[in-house]
Amino acid sequence: MDIAGALSVDHLKFLADGFKVTLYIAFVSIVLSFIIGIVLGTLRYAKIKFLSKVVAVIVETIRNMPLLLIIFFTFFALPEVGLKLSPTAAAISALTLFESAMLAEIVRSGLNSIHKGQIEAARSSGLTYIQTLWHIVMPQALRRMVPPIVSQFISLLKDTSLCVIIALPEFMHNAQIIYAQNVNYVIPVFVVVALMYFIVNYCLSLIARRLESRQA
After folding, report:
1. The pTM is what?
2. How far apart are alpha carbons 213 and 216 in whole angstroms?
3. 68-86 per-position pLDDT tens digit
4. Which fold has domain 3-215?
5. Contacts 24+ apart (CB under 8 A), 135-138
6. Taking the CA atoms of the chain, what radius of gyration do you get in angstroms?
């Protein structure tokens, strides 16, 4: 085991560059999937004739697919129909697609957790269905959804490591390049990678727990 060689300044800088890519991919995917997830979850909750059923089929189909398959599809299959994406764009597209479906279910469950009596009271006071949903149901539901949404974002950050299969220069990809140079680099590099993932995800877990305790 060569700790000094594995964790040289150049190697640590190379790992840091990969971690920046990981955080960038995760951040963009989180923002996009949060927006799309709220829209899809609300459409499912609203039970709009035909549209809600179509959304339900799409969401359930994506939720029950392996993320790895979706990543392969965006990078290797889409070019066959004329849509070629860079590794970064393919990774963001795949993660956003998958996480949007997961978040849509969280949103739908959160909206369903609001007591129907509040909706009936709002409607009887003269509010439209959209106004009731926007001003009464959604604010309360979002507070309840925060802990599971944060937990889902933690999963998303870890799932970025799967993008190594499409040669995205993210954290795991750069780590592989380093320890491929010397078998004695494997353990030190893995320790650093594990530590970085742990620090970020543990901080997010603490946030989720704190938010959850506030809801209790």
Report:
1. 0.88
2. 5
3. 999 999 999 999 888 999 9
4. MetI-like fold (1.10.3720)
5. 137/111, 138/42, 138/111
6. 21
